[in-house]
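Risk register update: the risk of archive-format incompatibility is retired. Evidence:
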Amino acid sequence: MNFEVIELYITVAFLLIGAVFTMVAAIGLLKLGDPMTRLHAPTKAATLGIGSFLLASMSYSFATSEGSFHEVLILAFLFVTAPISANFIAKVNIHKRSCDMPDAPTKDAMWSTMDVPEGDRDIEVRPDP
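Archived output:
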């Protein structure tokens, strides 16, 4: 086996892995009902699927020509921004309050209320002079 055949097998393997992860993400978007659980499908499986496609593209470009590192930059951007966007979507879902908050336990009145007690705040509010 020469280098081109091995490189072709590596590219095909990355493409198949990417297709499987993308299919899992699509099925997850269809089957999961709650927005918070539906959030995991595109942020985890689709990110790995697209990452595999980009690795396949990079592998193919290095095998057939001089190669390109643009895919590495796209992959880094994708892995940095996917958790941040998922965090923002989750915060929007929490602040929409589409369901009632659970009752607070008797010991801690601030439990699950999205508010910080006065004593735990880092920023001190001073009145204007």
